[in-house]
Amino acid sequence: AIVFTAAIKAHSTSINATLSGLDGSEDEVSKVQKQEQIKASAKRCEDLLQELCLLYQLPGNDSSLKPSSVTFELVIGALTLAEEWEGVKRITALREEGMPQRD
Is the distance from CB of 91 to CB of 57 less than 8 angstroms? Predict the structure, then answer.
């Protein structure tokens, strides 16, 4: 879980760095490219969390693969920054459906 969370944090940091670079002076093409990069990083965060959840739910799972509340919050935050509302709904539903978390 630590490796997955670290990868999610890296994508989240990338999103924040890209957002801070959007200062309005870019041309439209550059702005669209940055927005696509943000969306791709947010989607990767969602994919990583879903993979972690699937690994945890496998028979004979290792309790160290249980996603923490911090991991869920990082992914929801990344998806929110990317304005990926469907992804936020999916992760919120996954969390609410009782995906066991380690705090």
Answer: no
CA 7 remoteness from chain centre? 9
> Which residue, chain included where needed, has tokens 């969602």?
46
Written as one string, the DSSP assignment of 55-102 is HHHSTT--GGGSPBHHHHHHHHHHHHHTT-HHHHHHHHHHHHTT---B
Predicted confidence (pLDDT) per residue in 38-68, tens digit:
999 999 999 999 999 988 888 887 778 889 9
d(CA 75, CA 89): 11
- pTM (two decimals): 0.85
Q: Which residues contact 2 (CB under 8 A, 6 or more apart)?
A: 64
CA torsion through residues 10, 12, 17, 18, sign: positive
What whole-number distance in Å separates Cα of residue 17 and Cα of residue 14?
5
Cα dist from 44 to 25, 28, 35, 62, 103, whole Å: 28, 24, 14, 23, 23
